[in-house]
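Hello again,

I reread your note about wanting to compare the complex against the isolated chains. To keep things tidy I'm splitting this into two emails, and this first one only covers the full assembly. Below are the input lines as submitted, including protein chains and any nucleic acid or small-molecule components. They are followed by the predicted structure of everything together. The single-chain runs will come separately.
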Amino acid sequence: MIGRFFSRYTIWIYAVLAFVFLLIPIAYTIVFSFNDSRRTNISWRGFTLDNWVYLCDEQGVCQSFLNSVIVGLVATLLATTLGTMIAIALVRYRFRFRAATTLLLFLPMATPEIVLGTGLAAEFLTAGIPKGALTVILAHTMFCISFVVVTVRARVASLDPAMEEAGRDLYASPGQVFMRVTFPLLLPGIIAAALLSFALSFDDFIITNFNSGPFTTFPKYLYTAAAKGMPAEANVVASAVFFIAIIAVVVSQLSAAARRKRLAKQ
Amino acid sequence: MAFGAFATSAPVVESAPRRRSKVALLLLLPGIAYLALFFLVPLVSLVLTSFQAKTPGTDIGVYEYAFKIENYGFVFSTYSEHMLRSLLYAVVATALALLFSYPLAYFIGVTLRKFPLLQALSLTLVIAPFFISFLLRTLAWKQILSDEGPVISTLKALSLLGSDAHFTGTPGAVIFGLAYNFIPFMTLPIYTSLEKLDLRYVEAGSDLYASPVRTFLSVTLPLSAPGVISGTLLTFIPISGDFVNASNAFLGSSETAMVGNVIESQFFTSQNYPIAAALSIILMAAILILVSIYVRKSGTEDLV
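Full-complex prediction:
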């Protein structure tokens, strides 16, 4: 039977070992956020909560974290808006240059980040735009758009146009139909796209590196700090972000499971 | 993920073609204009920059438009070693990630079918590395695998390694880091195709007295090929442009420099933008050629 190739128990043992392997560096990062380390957080010197409590004493960490959050929020807002509009147009309308549009959306995802990064840097240099927060936001918005389109498009495609027709039949204006019918139905897809955008922007290093000039995001701070010795406060920020993200995922999965159960009962 | 999503969108409920194509234009225009301005123009800008020549009598980092095709000759003669190394590392790391991910994806997509909660938990564990910066994860491996770290010192104490052996800074360490960092990109698309796999086909294989290996090779593997192809592309492309794993501060040394490291140092240290641009163009061209051959060979052109 199916179990034979990956025989029953071997695959369970393998999976457990694989998960442990995947999680080793995460566990290491979290454990070392509690290290009483002073400057270089390499060897274990005892447990402390100081890194967590006096987090912003290490100035660069807090500032770069804040910068990353701001960039992430603005880029997410822009990319989600532009990407959702494209997704609706792609599913609902016939137009010329459809293939070209799909290709233009696909290419940024298939281009190595270093090419996107140096290309934007060449453009900003030629146009004389000084590198900083603005150029980082412009760059992040660009690479997030395609991922938003992919995510929202699936949701638009599963939306029954009869719903909107019903709205129109009841003499709702196109604006009302969008706000009262289309938008609420698309919302789960839009939220998923926004979360993905924020995650992509927050963790981006390569494109940011080429287009940030003196502006420092959290990953860029980490890259610079890696050469001189990483302060434990960096582990604190990363661990906190990790816990928040995991809680968000688990909560969303549990609520989706609860909704399925409710629907099954009805 | 990305590649698959364009091919296998949900069943489309198409509405009748609308007359108001003006609305479509208004919806498309801002986003498409944005991508033209910040994706297409940068590519053109990169090509133009790659032909630039130094402005005579100026400081470092000042260039003017020319048609200096010699930039490419210089890049090929000086950095072909780095290009071949990037290609080799990317191929090996992608293969390792595939070997690691396939059984894991099979476990989540097939073995755990009867346990939806465990399946959701496993998927969360696969994407968990995304939630912690890959720079810190790579640095964690560097410290775990360093000469004084727990792994190497244990192996030395057991005399399994010579006392002067070391791992970080070697090609092996760089390939290890590259493979580790991109495992989720490989596992998720393979999981997506295995999750949809109709097990009756596999049963048919064993009913016809095919050996488990034969059934796997002629039924399971071909049916999961779209996931394997998406996964390998999503892994290979970012790996070949990566410069974090191979850099001195992480898992590499000067002997492991990849194209990305050369581009970075040309860009920041030498401020030689034309050479950095030429390297980026060659990298992109090489990837486009390799990917199109790969996609054609695997007979799934409709995938992208």
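For quick reference: Residues 189 and 253 of chain B are 32 Å apart (CA to CA).

B.
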